Amino acid sequence: MDRISESAAAVQPAEIIALLKWYQDAGVDEAIGDDPGALGRPRAAAAPAAPVQMVPPPRPVQLEPRPSPRPQAAAVLPGSDAATGDARRIAAGCRTLEELAAALAAFDGCGLKATATQMVFADGNPEADIMIVGEAPGAEEDRLGKPFVGQSGKLLDRMLAATGLDRSTVYISNIVNWRPPGNRQPNAAEIAISLPFIECHIALMRPKILLCAGGTAAAALLATREGITRIHGRWFDRSFPGLPAPVPTMPIYHPAFILRQPGMKRDVWRDLLVLKHRMIELGCAFKRDA
């Protein structure tokens, strides 16, 4: 048995316990090793750390500047002032009714075009002396593509017959050429965009007499705030670009209004008598036996 073994054998258990307690009281919490003399020897010096190599920061990446996007022309929004300007420019370039109809069909500046079934341009005789302008197509007009059909159209036909007229001796159109949703009245923006086209329409027709059917048409063409009940049956001289002289213009009740207010038929009859007298005065074509 070597010396270490002999020393360990000579140590009693009570002494071992006392030694461990002394270590605990001294704060020893780590075994040094199996070598009993390690506690008295200095620790070997740690190997020097390798010098840190300083790596230069990466050079910033040079990004090529992107070319500025080319400015794009702003879209012409339906109902905008730009759309109204386009309407004036397009209408001014139309020289025939066919050109005007084609220009209107291609025009996207009126938002009503997106909700209507089709454009309602005109009906009747393009050579007629009398032109009638309503406000806008209704449901039946939108379906058939003609102005003043359905119950309103039938009443208009009876009114025309009372003065010796029919659809072969008049020409009929509207301020607005597309039906407003729900048969509502066209708003101010829709009328402003449509006005250059109907003014061109009238100038190309060169009528001897112009009838405004309803308050909306009268307000648009005569630039008046007076209601239809005050101005119906009165004559106004309305000038149009391209015409050498003003056109005698008379507001009348819209047939749809008469259907709702049958008590107005007496006023309608008076207006028709005034119209017939002016037709004779101006030499307008009509059935003289009526």
Supply Rg.
Answer: 49 Å
- Category by helix and strand content: alpha/beta
The number of helical segments is 11
Q: Rough shape? A: elongated
Number of strands: 6
- The H-and-E topology, N to C, reads as HHHHEEHHEHEHHEEHH
Q: Tell me the fraction of residues in β-strands, as a range.
A: 5-15%
Helix content: 40-55%
Describe the main β-sheet briefly.
Answer: 6 strands, mixed
Arithmetic mean of pLDDT? 83
Strands in their spatial order, largest beta sheet = 1-3-2-4-6-5
The low-confidence runs, each spanning 5 or more residues with pLDDT under 50, are 1-9, 35-40, 68-75
- What is the first-to-last residue Cα distance? 155 Å
Written overview of the protein:
- The chain contains eleven helices and six strands.
- Strands 1-3-2-4-6-5 form a six-stranded mixed sheet, with helices on both faces.
- Helix 3 runs parallel beside helix 7.
- It starts with a helix and ends in an 8-residue tail after the last helix.
- The N terminus is likely disordered.
Summarize the structure.
The chain has helices spanning 3-10, 13-26, 81-92, 97-106, 139-144, 150-162, 188-205, 215-222, 228-231, 255-260, 265-282, and strands at 123-124, 130-134, 170-174, 209-213, 236-238, 247-252. It is built from 11 helices and 6 strands.
How are the elements arranged and paired?
Blueprint: H1 3-10, H2 13-26, H3 81-92, H4 97-106, E1 123-124, E2 130-134, H5 139-144, H6 150-162, E3 170-174, H7 188-205, E4 209-213, H8 215-222, H9 228-231, E5 236-238, E6 247-252, H10 255-260, H11 265-282
Parallel strand pairs: 2-3, 2-4, 4-6
Antiparallel strand pairs: 1-3, 5-6
Helix pairs in contact: 3-7
